[in-house]
Design brief:
The chain has 268 residues and is mainly α. The protein has two domains: 1-127, Up-down Bundle (Four Helix Bundle (Hemerythrin (Met), subunit A)); 130-226, Helix Hairpins (Orthogonal Bundle). It contains nine helices and no strands. It starts with 19 loop residues before the first helix and ends in a 12-residue tail after the last helix.
């Protein structure tokens, strides 16, 4: 039985429609992780690029593992969740790449949640939980940027004679440190196109974390204190008050209306 829109779990131990924004985030990450797997196994990429893809997948595995524990903790019936939730844990194992296809179960679960909601309802929920929504978008964009820019810089710097980013681990480390605007300087691009990628990564990194900081600050000062459940209760109370007012108006109109006597009674 699905509970009200503000809730988090169902009687079967699964997530409810109340967190459709989070499920959209998980769906996007799952699809992206499957694209990473396809690139790793099927595309004719270099060994260094495969190393970068593998490290990107490890980062995704950590996020999925945290999601699995989150779902387990929030499930009212832990055994009911583990009936299918063990596939979530299996798809989060960081060392065995073929097990990643168990993430399809997570995608199916998220789709079951999202399909019950109208896009307008999901958008309205995102507006109610702006701080959480921006946090999830920031995580997704950051993961994509780290993965794609590490691969790009490997391809662009591979033929440069004085390049110092030559392996997947170096490229991944450079992308991560550049996105966070730390930039230790031990790894850096030397070609024009490589530096152009770095400029884009630094600019987006500043913007992403700036927006994140502003919304988190708004959340801490209480801008998003009223949740979806409270808003629904207020709407229900308002509808009840409107109904009572309509009944009172009808009674007043009926009392003040002039009474018309039957025509036959005039002669009497």
């Amino acid at each position: 039985m699905v509970e009200k829109e503000g809730t988090q779990t169902t009687a079967s131990g699964q997530m409810t429609v109340g967190n459709a924004v989070y499920e959209l985030f998980i769906s996007a990450l799952t699809i992206y992780s499957l694209l990473v797997l396809v690139s790793y196994w099927l595309l004719p990429v270099s060994a260094a690029t495969k190393q970068a893809l593998f490290r990107s997948d490890i980062l995704l595995s950590v996020i999925f593992l945290a999601d699995s524990f989150r779902s387990l903790v929030r499930a009212p019936d832990k055994w009911a969740y583990l009936k299918w939730g063990w596939l979530d844990f299996l798809g989060s194992v960081p060392a065995v790449l073929p097990l990643r296809f168990a993430r399809l179960a997570r995608l199916f679960r998220a789709w079951r949640v999202i399909r019950t909601r109208h896009p307008r309802q999901v958008l309205r929920q995102f507006e109610r939980q702006r701080a959480e929504g921006v946090l999830l978008v920031t995580i997704f964009v950051s993961v994509m940027l780290i993965s794609t820019t590490s691969i790009l810089v490997l391809e662009l710097e591979g033929n440069a004679p004085d390049a110092n980013i030559q392996s997947g681990p170096d490229a991944f480390w450079w992308a991560f440190s550049t996105l966070t605007t730390v930039a230790y300087g031990d790894r850096y691009p030397v070609t024009f196109l490589g530096r152009l990628v770095a400029m884009v990564l630094m600019t987006v990194g500043i913007g992403v974390f700036g927006v994140l900081a502003s919304y988190l600050a708004a959340a801490f000062v209480g801008a998003d204190r009223i949740g979806a459940e409270e808003i629904d209760l207020l709407r229900d109370d308002l509808a009840e008050v409107k109904g009572e007012l309509a009944s009172i108006k009808a009674l007043i109109s009926e009392r003040d209306a002039p009474r018309q006597e039957p025509a036959g009674e005039e002669g009497d």
